[in-house]
Design a protein that fits this description.
Layout (H helix, E strand, L loop, with lengths): L10 H6 L3 H26 L14 H8 L7 E3 L5 H6 L4 H8 L33 H14 L6 E6 L6 H12 L4 E7 L2 E2 L2 E2 L12 H4 L4 E5 L3 H16 L5 E6 L20 H8 L3 H11 L5 H24 L10 H6 L8
Parallel strand pairs: 1-2, 2-3, 3-7, 6-7
Antiparallel strand pairs: 4-5
Length: about 350
């Protein structure tokens, strides 16, 4: 049964229930997302990457915690802020970096850029940039899984701003009505583009929307990957066993601006004090503190992880720069991207 983990048990109790290998893997995934995004921010500032890019820095625990509870055959649907979901689901960062350079070796063959990552082989069919666009797609795939009696689920990642769209409510309704195997993950980073949610939502308690549709809904600390993993895993197991959907509101914060590498402090929409408050609650540092406290990882291992990921990221940059651009005369781009994935059904 899905329930709010906040205050229920101490961190040590929660950590004890998760295999050490899983905890270390989640730490590495979060560091990979952070280092990739920081390097991407540098490349944007240097005008090496020119496509619109929405960075995931600060929200690493959400994608990591959820995707670590999934199977490879489960599908996730992302948004314009898709890098973290792609990496957490097992995506190749060389292919993603090449995509942002618009190269043929990119995961979307150089046609999608940062906002339209696709990697069906890992269970990420696409990343629609239209607000709330991921939600009905995830529901449709969940319906297909249900009709085909497959042991798979789908996950819709979306931001708080997406709850202003009618399709959010329509999707929750049909998912609850048909008890579909879909999990709705709201990454509430407090801002819908450049507007604080208190300025556009009459009721900012998004998780309460679930009650209207008779489905479980919970708000959790989206910066605590252990809590995200435990709550997501419970909801995923319920959905996989025919108990229907759930809505999980993950409270988090994006460090950078809505789009691009800057912090948006010059736009008058948030203060330095607010940004510092959330940066001091860094999800990576919080997990690092726990892993060190319970002797799950050592300082030397942490150093090695950072060095390896920085090397891997630089290799991705070099590979992207050296890769060719797409052949503009090439036809059937969709077939080239998705291959045989959709042939014969989902």
């Amino acid at each position: 049964m899905l329930k709010d983990m906040k205050g229920e048990r101490m961190a040590g109790d929660l950590v004890a229930e998760i295999p050490k290998a899983t905890l270390r893997a989640m730490y590495r995934t979060m560091v990979k997302i952070r280092k990739f995004e920081e390097r991407t921010a540098e490349l944007i500032s240097q005008k090496e990457i020119i496509c619109p890019t929405h960075l995931y820095i600060g929200q690493e625990a959400v994608a990591t915690g959820v995707c670590s509870a999934l199977k490879k055959e489960d599908w996730v649907f992302s948004t314009h802020r898709s890098h973290g979901h792609y990496i957490a689901k097992g995506g190749d960062i060389k292919a993603m970096m090449a995509e942002m350079y618009g190269k043929a070796t990119g995961c979307s063959k150089g046609r999608g850029g940062s906002m339209h990552l696709a990697s069906p082989e890992i269970g990420l069919a696409g990343s629609p940039a239209i607000l709330a666009g991921s939600i009905p797609l995830a529901v449709g795939v969940a319906l297909a899984f249900s009709l085909q009696e497959k042991d798979s689920i789908s996950v819709a990642f979306f931001g708080d701003g997406a709850t202003n769209e009618g399709v959010f409510y329509e999707s929750l309704n049909i998912a609850a009505l048909k008890k579909l195997p879909v999990i709705f993950i709201c990454e509430n980073n407090l801002y819908a583009t450049h507007m604080h949610i208190s300025k556009c939502l009459a009721d900012v308690d998004i998780y309460k929307r679930a009650k209207v549709f008779n489905m479980p809904g919970v708000r959790i600390n989206g910066n605590d990957v252990v809590e995200v993993f435990k709550v997501a895993k419970s909801a995923i197991e319920d959905a996989r066993h025919g108990k229907g959907p759930a809505l999980i509101e993950c409270m988090t914060y994006r460090w950078r601006g809505h789009v691009g590498p800057d912090y948006d402090l010059d736009k008058g929409i948030r203060s330095r004090e607010e940004l510092n408050y959330w940066m001091n609650r860094c999800p990576i540092k919080e997990l690092e503190r726990i892993l060190l406290k319970y002797d799950i990882i050592s300082e030397s291992e942490i150093t090695q992880i950072y060095e390896n990921i920085e090397k891997e990221t630089e290799e991705a940059v070099v590979s992207a720069k050296e890769s060719p651009y797409p052949n503009l005369s090439e036809d059937n781009v969709q077939d080239n991207v998705f291959g045989d994935v959709f042939k014969g059904g989902i």
